[in-house]
Amino acid sequence: MYKNYQTYQYANMANTTLKQEILDNITLVFNLSEDSKLNNSFFEQTKKELSFLAEYFHITQTQALFVAVIFTLNYKGRKVDLDDLNSHFDCNPMKLLEFSDDFVDLYNKRLLRKNNKSNRHRSINLKGADEEFYINQIVSEKILKSEPIPDVLVDAIKYEDIFTLLEKINEIGNQRDNEEISTFELFEQTQCLLEENRHFPLIEKARFLGTSMEEKYLFLYVVWKFLEGDRDPWIERSFKEIYDKPKERFTQIQRFLAKENNLVKEDLLEIVDAAFFDDARMQLTEKALDLLTECDIKLFKKDVDKKKKENVIQPQDLPFRELIFSEKEANQLALLKNLLLEENFKKTQERLVQKSLPKGVTALLYGASGTGKTESVLQIAKATNREIMKIDISASRSMWFGESEKIIKQVFKDYKSYAKSQTLAPILFFNEADAIIAKRKEANSSNTSDTENRIQNILLEEMENFEGILIATSNLVNNMDTAFERRFLFKIEFQKPAVSAKIKIWKLKMPHLSNEDCEILATKFDFSGGQIDNIVRKNEINEILYGSAVDVNTLLEFCKEETLTNQFSKKSIGFN
After folding, report:
1. pLDDT for the residue numbered 301
2. pLDDT tens digits along 279-327
3. In what side-by-side order are the strands of the sheet with 490-494?
4. Cβ-Cβ contacts under 8 Å for 233 (sequence gap 6 or more)
5. Burial of 23 from C-beta contacts in 10 A (0-12 / 13-18 / 19+)
6. Distance between CA atoms of 294 and 302, rounded to whole angstroms?
7. Whether the Cβ atoms of residue 43 and residue 61 lie closer than 8 Å to each other
8. pLDDT, position 459
9. Are 501 and 324 in contact (CB under 8 A)?
10. How far apart are CA 131 and CA 483, in angstroms?
């Protein structure tokens, strides 16, 4: 027997290795222990072998017996319960209970692992009766490699990539959730992994997050959930996975909701508002996402690609369109466009920061429908080579209580994340924003009104701290809440074009018309640019079907058909 196992593999023993001697001793102990009833004679008979194994594993001889038997049964392809051990030793179950402290000790030293079996078919549930045992995989690896078992057995491995490490930490968390390990062991094993993998920037930074191992684990837990696609895990469910004692769990939940947790205080995790205690969720803050980006964890590639496909408009995909406005409108739009040219935009933001002024650029384009508001945004984006992140307001007014507020917050988070991945800041475009900038309703008037008010409060808060480019359009500015007025730096009113402007629009869109015809159409019909576009489209359809452009008389008929109001006013309504 060799007392110094660190030098065992260098001993001069013919045809013998540490692995072979350990396996030989385990085999002999297993064979002799079968039907032994755990009598004293068995322990006397195997004293030499048990002493060898006890010294190798740093445990008692009795504990070495159980390790040898469970190790062998595991290699037969199954985990081991107390019934298996009773059958092997051919002893009364009460006999095994005499050694319960040895099992606890083996479990605490991590030589032995356990998990609970399903209780579905059990009529009783006594402590320990539903447990299955298996040897720690690290023990098997050490034996098969002829390596010594360290005094302190930890499952810490140095990983080559951060995602595998986070996945391993999540697996340990699953063991805790399945009641295979305790909360204490969860944090202890995580601590060992963090110490062994400090070469990752995220782990080095995580060592200084919060003040406790619990908070470090919670942060990494939420990061992994985010990577798996769960942006805002439930607080109650998450803490139930982590803490095995209800009292500790509820205490930690209360601390978190009261914002006493250091991760909340340091703006790394935030609470997603909910109507009820068990509805509360948590999520990574913008600061936390910045931290992960600094640590070379590319979180947004999939999201960015998806956003790009769904609601991001590329400037090169926009066709050029010449727009005609009044002199006032043209000057205001030119100022906004020139500001958004990158050289001017960077200088402006630098100056505003120096003056301690908000550096975000926000603009509201308002006026009657069809006056060119949306097209103006598109043309500004094309002229300044900026992408547009277009937001469908109708989709943000979710029917589910609480979801609308969450969606609005997510819009700004997505914009910030996307903007960081782009060379030029994109334009966040709220088209037809009347629904979210309208006057706030009286509190508690209805669930719908309360939800809309919360959406507006969130939007006001986000705009207050906004650092990018936001443009919104509205048809009903008279219904806009006054709180939004100062949030918009530029407020550009679009009026229906004057006769002189309409003449130019008709001529631009239908060059084959004479100046006189354009003047007739512009004078006779008070159309917006959008309505004139409808007439132009009808002309194009007519030309495709019949091979020629329509004459002015046909255009006049198209114009009369464009406004339903005029048609209805000619008909009598009610009784004659």
Report:
1. 44
2. 688 999 888 888 888 888 865 544 444 444 567 899 999 999 888 888 8
3. 312-313, 388-392, 427-431, 469-474, 361-367, 490-494
4. 222, 225, 281, 282, 283
5. middle
6. 18
7. yes
8. 87
9. yes
10. 62
Q: Which tokens hold the place of 486?
A: 């100062």
What is the token pair recorded at 390? 């277009």
Contact call for residues 213 and 259 (beta carbons, < 8 A): no
* Rounded Cα–Cα distance for residues 240 and 173 (Å): 11
Given a cut of 50, is residue 90 above it in pLDDT?
Answer: yes
Q: What is the pLDDT of residues 366-411, one digit of tens each?
A: 988 888 899 999 999 999 999 999 987 765 555 444 566 777 888 8
Residues near 97 by beta carbon (within 8 Å), at least 6 away in sequence: 128
Reduce the secondary structure of 147-194 to three states and give it as a string.
CCCCCCCCCCCCCCCHHHHHHHHHHHHHHHHCCCCCHHHHHHHHHHHH
Could you tell me which residue, 402 or 522, shows the higher pLDDT? 522
Region of residue 123 (phi > 0: left; psi between -120 and 50: alpha; otherwise: beta): alpha
Residue type (1 letter), 386: R
CA–CA distance, 169 with 193 (Å, rounded to integer): 8
Phi-psi region for residue 210, left (φ > 0), alpha (ψ -120 to 50) or beta? left
Tell me if 428 sits within 8 A of 468, measured CB to CB: yes
